[in-house]
Amino acid sequence: MTELTAHAEPCTVEIDAVGHFLDSRQRIIITIDGPAGTGKSSVARDLAHRLSLDFLDTGAMYRAATALAIDLGVDLSDEDAVADTVRSADLRFEWTTDPPTLYAFGRPIMHRLRQPDVSARVSPVSSLAAVRKVLVERQRRIGEVHQRLVSEGRDQGSVVFYDADVKFYLDASPRVRAARRAEQLRRMGQPADLDAIEREITDRDRRDSTRAVGPLTCPDDAVRVDTSDLDQAGVVESLVRLVMARV
Ligand code: DC
To answer: Measuring from atom 6 of ligand 1, which residue has the nearest CA?
Structure first.
């Protein structure tokens, strides 16, 4: 694993030079894993833009699985029933929108993904082995078709695309992640207790990294990026530079 500290030098490469440098026919899979609150999704999306790659949000797929199970009245603790539902929903992305629009049973499901009931129940659903099996297969099929991809989640570099060309693991201290979450809540007009949020984050990290299937882990061959003292633009610049150095 390589460490990238907050003191990495700023990228000095012109944006145009990036597109020029990456051959548009070349297969390139970049994975970005890490816990919530590290800015992973925004960074992954920006990185994909910068390098003209597709962007896969695998958290959206776990959220869709949860929304479908809730809406169809499936018992969320019955992993085979949830997995069957996800399989028959035939989750697909429409790649012409930004971000790509996720469809289930042929209908867009994006409006459900961040609703509170889904957010509250997605973590246990994502620890169901049978559900992970269906979604990991689906993500690998997407990777076969979209061979120029930034894929973001928890197990993308360790399980789904273990042969990825470049792997990143984004991290930040629980306190910083809690402060970012508290800020989001305040912006939505909701109360935020920083200490309580930090405790929740620490508990969830422990659950996610000790679960039996697809645990949150930093692969040995990933570049670990601590985003505690970096803003989003700074993180993306560092990642662009590292991709160019690797590819
Ligand atoms: O990144 P997110 O908050 O949208 O992820 C939603 C949930 O799905 C979260 O509990 C982590 C889980 N997840 C996972 O277990 N594996 C992935 N590849 C992506 C997300």
So the answer is: 59
Q: What is the secondary structure of the chain as a DSSP string?
A: -EEE-TTPPPP-S-HHHHHHHS-TTS-EEEEEE--TTS-HHHHHHHHHHHHT-EEEEHHHHHHHHHHHHHHTT--TT-HHHHHHHHHHHT-EEETTSSSPEEEETTEE-GGGTTSHHHHHHHHHHHT-HHHHHHHHHHHHHHHHH--EEEEEESSIIIIITTT-SEEEEEE--HHHHHHHHHHHHHHTT----HHHHHHHHHHHHHHHHH-SSS-----TTSEEEE-TT--HHHHHHHHHHHHHHH-
| Per-residue model confidence as pLDDT tens digits over 7-43 | 333 323 333 445 545 677 789 999 999 998 899 999 9
Residue having the nearest C-alpha atom to atom 4 of ligand 1 = 59
- Span 113-154, pLDDT tens digits: 999 999 999 999 999 999 999 999 999 999 999 999 999 999
Domains in the chain: boundaries: 2-6+14-19+27-246
Asked if residue 66 has its Cβ within 6 Å of ligand 1, the reply is: no
Q: Which CATH architecture has domain 2-6+14-19+27-246?
A: 3-Layer(aba) Sandwich (3.40)
For the full predicted model, state whether its pTM sits above 0.85: yes
Q: Which atom of ligand 1 is nearest to the CA of 126?
A: 15
- 159 Cα to the center of ligand 1, angstroms: 14
Q: Whose CA is nearest to atom 5 of ligand 1?
A: 59
